[in-house]
Design brief:
This protein has 432 residues and is of the alpha/beta class. 25% of the residues lie in helices and 19% in strands. The strands form six sheets. An eight-stranded mixed β-sheet has the order 15-13-11-10-16-21-23-24, sandwiched between helices.
């Protein structure tokens, strides 16, 4: 550690050349000091046509800003709130990819990576940790011509996939706190959906869940369960109580037994402190956490994901609202397939029956331009505040009946009429 020589952010980013492709570590662990230094180089006219790649990032995103049009161009693997407007305005872009395959883009050379810019923990025994966001950064570090690391004391030393100090070309110091988000309080509708989801989770299940008010509601309804495991893309504060109380203990996992496994985190400082030097938590490359085969090796996997819209045949949109990008493919299908291949596993897609403005989310057909993240052939359990239905092995007409039964009551007549127009009079007499 004493042999490490630190440089300023401005000195470190001098290796960046015009037309380079740059990887950023993501979520709460973005190297903002390096981005600011690149902005200074861009303002001085020293670089142009830089391409930025990452999963979702928190905080300012000047690499997608119209002010840097032609100089910076963001092409992320997931669309977060900080770049959403610029992506939909064409100043930034999105690369559709299952997150399990995002490291492959770097390792195969399909996506070039001249510079990897990451934020890491204090070094220990010749290694640094990527802390709260391993995601696809390990692959970028392997592939990059140059690796720049911001050492930040706020980054937890999380066990799992570590990075050797010897792989890093330049070290920069920064002590800016990591980005946090407040705990999302569930609504009454979230609570109803959470209760319906929890009823589908048996004791001993291995869970995958996301972040937000709905996952928090689901977690609150799992407090009476026993011996749950967690192998997930990400987790947040909602599951901390389950881990600390022993509800989540991983005792029935056969892969990484007793361990909480994830690729990235987002939440409170308490969450980040929880993973620091915690041998019960493994932060792993997303090609591991999201590999359907690895997921399926644990018995009783229950994946719980979310959707913006579901049509009457079970096509699931989760990345867009019509043609407007909202998020990304993410790891939904990775876990849908992994859960269904698991012995006793099940895949759940949860959504409120209507949007906050009152638009139906179970629709006769998807909104034009909507992306199909989970094909209807892969759909299994769909859950709303009005109940849960299992579509797997059901015909198109049966699916329409089942989905109508958990739609908002004021939308059911419209959906029945749409199904009748699509399938004919036989549909009227169908029972499920």
């Amino acid at each position: 550690m004493n042999s490490i020589q630190y440089v300023t952010a401005d000195e470190a980013v001098r290796v960046v050349r015009s037309h380079d492709h740059i990887h950023l570590s993501g979520v709460a662990n973005v190297p903002h000091s390096l981005i600011a230094a690149l902005c200074r180089r861009a303002d001085a006219g020293e670089v142009t046509d830089l391409h930025f790649h990452h999963i979702h990032t928190e905080g300012p995103a000047p690499y997608s800003d119209p002010a840097y049009e032609g100089v910076f161009f963001e092409q992320g693997f997931f669309v977060g709130p900080n770049v959403r407007a610029n992506v939909n305005a064409g100043y930034a872009d999105y690369i559709p990819v299952h997150l399990e395959e995002s490291p492959t883009l770097y390792r195969s050379g399909i996506l070039p990576c001249q510079v990897a810019m990451v934020q890491v923990s204090e070094p220990e025994d010749g290694y640094v940790s990527l802390g709260t966001s391993v995601d696809c950064s390990v692959a970028a570090i392997e592939a990059a011509d140059h690796v720049i690391a911001v050492v930040n004391p706020h980054v937890p030393f999380a066990y799992g996939d570590l990075v050797p100090v010897s792989r890093i070309e330049a070290f920069v110091r920064d002590d800016a706190p990591l980005y946090t988000i407040p705990f999302a309080q569930p609504s009454a509708i979230d609570e109803a959906i959470g209760r319906n989801c929890a009823e589908l989770v048996p004791d001993g299940a291995c869970l995958q869940m996301g972040i937000g008010s709905l996952p928090n509601a689901i977690a609150s309804h799992l407090r009476g369960h026993k011996d749950l495991g967690l192998h997930t893309e990400l987790f947040s504060d909602g599951v901390l109580d389950l881990i600390r109380s022993g509800v989540v203990n991983g005792s029935r996992k056969t892969t990484d037994p007793g361990k909480v496994v994830a690729a990235f985190l987002l939440g409170s400082t308490e969450l980040y402190d929880f993973v620091d030097h915690n041998s019960d938590v493994l932060m792993k490359d997303i090609s591991y956490t999201n590999d359907p085969w690895i997921i399926s090796r644990n018995p009783g996997v229950v994946s719980i994901n979310f959707a913006t819209e579901v049509d009457l045949t079970g096509q699931i949109c989760a990345d867009s609202i019509g043609t407007r990008m909202y998020s990304g493919t993410g790891g939904q299908l990775d876990f849908v397939k992994g859960a269904r291949r698991s012995a006793g596993g099940k895949s759940i897609i949860a959504l409120p029956s209507r949007t906050r403005t009152g638009k139906n989310k179970i629709s006769p057909v998807l909104t034009p331009g909507a992306g199909v993240v989970t094909p209807r052939a892969d759909a299994q359990w769909i859950v709303t505040e009005y109940g849960a239905v299992n579509l797997y092995g059901r015909s198109l007409q049966e699916r329409a009946k089942l989905l109508t039964s958990i739609a908002h009551p004021d939308d059911r007549e419209m959906l029945e009429q749409a199904a009748f127009e699509r399938f004919g009079k036989h549909y009227l007499h169908l029972t499920v």
